[in-house]
């Protein structure tokens, strides 16, 4: 007779977690609802219909802009821990009781094994497009020059179109007012809903692709993706939230500074060593960013407090984003999954994390109410999610087809065009010193790409010479 006790215990852990979440969210709701009188909406006029009870998300929106982001961040983290904590408890229990090694299988035990042990490999598990950072595909040498140019234009248009659209809409949604009923204008404030909508569409697209290609099995335990997913949604949230305090050109330039935290994370996580030119270009980028921040002004966000908050949010964005890329690199080395598998796994956990947090806060309700009152927001949100998902697919395709260098050049050009486009559409002012800062940043990026390629060519010639001199076969860098 099959033993149902382990299954019952695991379900009990899940039920207790849901109960605790509901209890804590109710306490938070009551605490915020009883806040300072000036931050709470006035009672309805006599004879008017009573207002519906505000969700936790709407109560947070009523707080002062200077610290409401911190309050929302703490509530978001609690929502994410509602997935993390039961996951850790189930893992500890399954490991201690050898639950995954049981002979009597159930749907629940199969799911637990898939999450914590992986599924093994077969002939279908080989990456179709290789890990991020791979060089040109094997078919690259078989294409004619005309085909190469056409394919390069395809990647250029795809990346430029998707990410320029994404950038313009991102700034519009987070900084511009939408006109609602009775011509009242208001801002959309819940950054996490945007992260959720982007990730759920990305997950659905990649899941359909993997099922169609029968490429959904590989060695990596599913939970390994949760770490990259957590850092990914945190970086995306900080990125959206920063637009409430700094302008879009500042954010784009700050992204170029990711090289610095990526190098730091690379040393910590992977023990990487870097060349002199890499340190030099990192310093140039930092100097250019300082010039830009000093020489650019935005009168609508000019206070020292908002500028400091914006810089702090961008710093957190770069830290989490640099961890994401390094952790994904380690997963590629350890499990050799394809880029689409990586995108699907990360987006799956991102959907779970943000969905659980939004459900706890009532974020779905408040966002849907805003969407009903502001139809243009719905169009912008859908196009934003589609452009984000398509952009991710073009990233993987471009890297697999032309290599990381061509991809870096295209994305650098995209950043320059994005700054110009944002200044033209939203009328941002940048002084001469700010322009000099922008030029220094992009010069450093192109110098970094050139030095990287030059160093690789020298190493390849040296290895070929060594192979020819010894009479053996020349070494080939794959």
Keywords summarizing the entry:
478 residues, mainly alpha, 2 domains, two-stranded antiparallel sheet, two-stranded antiparallel ribbon, 16 helices, transmembrane, membrane, transport, 3'-phosphoadenosine 5'-phosphosulfate transmembrane transporter activity, Adenosine 3'-phospho 5'-phosphosulfate transporter 1
Structure characterization notes:
The chain has 478 residues and is mainly alpha-helical. The protein folds into two domains: 1-32 and 56-117, no CATH class; 145-463, no CATH class. It is built from 16 helices and four strands. It has helices at residues 5-33, 56-61, 65-97, 107-117, 145-175, 191-213, 224-242, 248-256, 259-270, 276-295, 304-335, 339-361, 363-373, 375-402, 404-426, 432-469, and strands at residues 178-179, 185-186, 296-297, 429-430. The strands form two sheets. The chain has a two-stranded antiparallel sheet. Strands 3-4 form a two-stranded antiparallel ribbon. A hairpin with a 5-residue loop joins strand 1 (178-179) and strand 2. Helix 1 (5-33) packs antiparallel against helix 3, helix 7 (224-242) packs across helix 12 (339-361) and helix 9 (259-270) crosses helix 11 (304-335). The longest helix is centred in the last third of the chain and has 38 residues, at 432-469. The protein is globular. The model is unreliable at 37-41, 121-140 and 469-478 (pLDDT under 50).
